[in-house]
Amino acid sequence: MTQVARSINRRGDIEARYIAKTPLSREMQARAEKSMPGGETRSVFFPPYPVTLTHGKGVHCYDLDGNEYIDLSNNYTVLIHGHCFPPIVEAVKKQVELGTNWSAKAVPQVELAEMLCARFKIVDKVRFANSGTEAVLAAIAIARAYTGKRKVLMSRYSYHGHLLEPSSNHGELRARDDLSGSWLECYLADFGDAADFERVLAAHSDIAAVMLEPVLGQGGCVTAPPEFWDRVKKAAHKAGALFVLDEATAHRVSTGGAQKYLNIEPDLTVMGKLVGGGLPCGSVGGTDEVMKCLDPRTGNCHLSGTFTGNPLSMSAGVQAIKYFTESVVTKIENDMIRIEKGVTASAAKYGLPFSTRRIGNIMQMYFSNECPPFTQLRTDQELVDRFQLACTVNGLFVVTRIIINTSSVATDGDITEIIQRLDKSLEDTAKAA
User: Fold this and answer.
1) Which residue, 322, 351, 382, sits at the end of a domain?
2) How far is it, in rounded angstroms, from Cα 349 to Cα 34?
3) Which one-letter DSSP state was computed for residue 58?
4) Which of 80, 147, 270, 368 has the fewest beta carbons under 10 Å from its own?
């Protein structure tokens, strides 16, 4: 029996409505399962089957059946300006006519690098990659070349790309602190516990980098107090390791990333995937001292890639960063504050246990009276699954963790509509419960 059939056997009213609205997505799921594992090429499945999208415009996206959604995922925070942002579309169209890739520099590469160096206080030089995962691996390679060491210290419940997910193994939490003998080559410590990081750094002399998210994305919009960052950075330097921040998702809370928002100064920064304007892109930046190992004339770290810094992604990125201003940051944070107040009031109206954790314009929701320390420890999964499907039925595109964000192009009317659709989704969830 297929995943779809098993889910249909136990569906409730919300799922029945979903299936009735999305027959073409259901057919596409069955077709996709014949050529891709689970019908997916990224881990975005939700039962009974996910929608297949065909296009997006502004805050909206549309599926095969013509259903319209307001996008509260924005491809996991990447689409800071929503779908088909006109300056990005125009720049990419222009670049396609000039060529899509070649084995040499392109002008947009230099332009985007200059913009990122200007935005991030500690960044003197930038190296591009094709994804957040690649950028993380590049940061690790730089740290290894700079320090002459091998291992990485990370936190539990963090996410640094699909090749470096230390907290879980196919959904099961890892029990061990020391994964240095595995292909991950890392140690783990508790996020927010500076003493735990100090302990691990003092116990092991082979650590090249301490890599942390300034705001845990998969962990549920969690950050730590200033003392934590200061102590971990000092302990890293004492141990001869670099202090690295992975801003792949948190970058959008400030023009200079979450490090500017939280006043943290790392040695290396993995910047947000938003720097590609919605096209494949990653980037890592740092001081001249740290980044000089990448200089092809004198450096000891070779990093390259056929599509790295391709003109299409760079052209899109220039426009994305150009229009990602302080006024935009203020606007989308205020939009999220409105949404947070609205959804909290709606949950109370329907008698649902509910809490939120918000950092700037990114917000995690829980169906519990208090937020758990980390999303991986949540106990509300049944309500979460109902709510996420109810959101889809009511015209909101929300990912399975129900962490949401908005885009710069959302109008006041769009925010009002989001609050109303969230209200209806909570009503449906309460009725199903």
Assistant:
1) 322
2) 44
3) B
4) 368
Taking only the tens of pLDDT, the chain with its 433 residues reads 444 444 443 337 999 999 999 999 999 999 999 999 999 988 788 899 999 999 999 999 999 999 999 999 999 999 999 999 999 999 999 999 999 999 999 999 999 999 999 999 999 999 999 999 999 999 999 999 999 999 999 998 888 887 665 554 434 445 556 666 565 688 989 999 999 999 999 999 999 999 999 999 989 999 999 999 999 999 999 999 999 999 988 999 999 999 999 999 999 999 989 999 999 999 999 999 999 999 999 999 998 899 999 999 999 999 999 999 999 999 999 999 999 999 999 999 999 999 999 999 999 999 999 999 999 889 999 999 999 999 999 999 999 999 999 999 999 999 999 999 999 999 999 998 7
**Domain with 219 in it:** 86-322
Domain boundary residue, one of 270, 305, 322: 322
DSSP state of 75: H
- Decide: helix, strand or coil at residue 222: strand
104 and 77 housed in the same domain: no
> In the chain, how many domains are there?
2
| Sole residue written with tokens 């208090």 | 370
Predicted TM-score (pTM) above 0.90: yes
Q: Which of 263, 261, 259, 264 is closest to 232 using CA atoms?
A: 264
357, 248 in Cβ contact below 8 A?
Answer: no
First to last CA, the chain: 27
Rg of the chain over Cα atoms, rounded to whole angstroms, equals 22
What is the sign, positive or negative, of the torsion defined by CA atoms of 423, 426, 428, 430? negative
Tell me the two tokens of residue 120.
């991030």
Q: Are residues 193 and 146 in the same domain?
A: yes
| Residues with Cβ within 8 Å of residue 98, at least 6 apart in sequence | 311
Tell me, yes or no, whether 47 and 194 share the same domain.
Answer: no
